[in-house]
UniProtKB/TrEMBL annotation:
This is H+/Cl- antiporter ClcA. It comes from the Bacteria. The chain crosses the membrane at residues 40-58, 70-92, 123-145, 177-201, 213-237, 249-273, 285-307, 372-390. Its main location: membrane. Pfam families: Voltage_CLC. It is a multi-pass membrane protein. The keyword Transmembrane helix applies.
Amino acid sequence: MTTNRKRTRTARRLRLWWVLGNRHTRRQLGTVEDWKTRGVFWLGALTVGLVIQGFAWLSEESYGLTETMFAYNPYLFLLITPLGLVGIVWVMNKGGKASRGSGIPQVLLAHKQSYHWLRGPFLSLRVATLKVLLTCAGLLVGATVGREGPSVHVGAAIMYKFGCWAKLKQRQVESSLIVAGGAAGVSAAFNAPLAGIVFAIEELQQSMEARTTGTFIMAIILSGVVVLAFAGHYSYFGVPEVSAMPFAYYPYIIGVSAACGLMGGLFSVLLVQGNRAIAPLVQQWPLRVAFCIGLVLAVMAILSGGLTMGSGYVEAKALLAGEDEASWLTAVGKMLATLLTYFSGIPGGIFSPSLAAGAELGSAMGTLFPQVPAVSLILVGMASYFAGVVQRPITAFVIVLELTGNNHDILPALMVSALTATAVSKLIMPEPVYHVLAKDLLRGWEHLLRDKAEPLPAAQVEEVQITK
């Protein structure tokens, strides 16, 4: 009897040891749902990288055709730009008004659980497709738009759809998917994974879910891997030659940063207030407003020799390479053209135009401080003006650093300039521009707020399955 009891106790201990060991192993490996979530993040990120790379190629080809047509006869744009903007606005209003603007305000609203009813209309594949095609159309007709904001919107929409198709159960994962998609869009658009991570944490999501942070970062890296596979290793604005800045130069850097931050804050105020002022006219006569704005943009392009058109990527790269000289008129013209294009309502972002305007400002101010290297002031102008516009200092200096070859000698100067510009910008624009634009955007979709308690139509059931 004693022997049987010992055998029974031994068997129980072995069984307990096996169960506990198996649980520990399963906890380490993760559940099926955990791997399903990781698969959605990773596959979605690879898809985002592929789509954004195609978006980049299409936008470059579109602007290349614009440059060719402008060189052939710039006066053609007195018809091309107004009629082109009219066509873009008409297609946008018919196909999906949620594709309007940069797309970052849409993502800011959609990733919040309190606005989950906006995810269907804001993050549909139709809206993402329109965002890509109409942004490229804007570049083709001579508008002043960037593709980085739209890339955030497109990336978030793709990741959200992958989550819907996979029917993930975790509510927290849904917002993480949207943030990861937007960050992957930035990473793929700029070929800058670190900038994507910082942008997501600083702009899109202030608190990350610890359980999904590793998967989230891996998704951003995977989107960058796709870009490397197709485009190779490159810096967005090339690799300018810069050296460490002596301490004696920092008073000049702070002065340039404060001026650029002031200009960036003023730009944000004009963007918000001008958009609010023109909104009733856009709602009543969208095509007429687009035509008038297109005509003004065409005249500005002709007077500036085409420098106010496009994203500004070509001009900024030429300044950094020392192949061109900036002027105050070009800098102000770029800012004004960006404002007017945004007021027209067409899809397109302000990332690249803001970086280009900052480069123009930094180069123009370089004539006031000839003792400071011109390239260094251009980089400081880019970081500080962009920080003044978006009021995200870490994102600003990380983006400029990664987009210009990761030369860490200039990093302290970029950090000081971004922080200084943000502080100055907040004096005239207390709240970040994208958050203000998101609040203004929400007012146009209040009918969904009133209808959210009612049963959803069958066509929208798929869009909100992930929230159940």
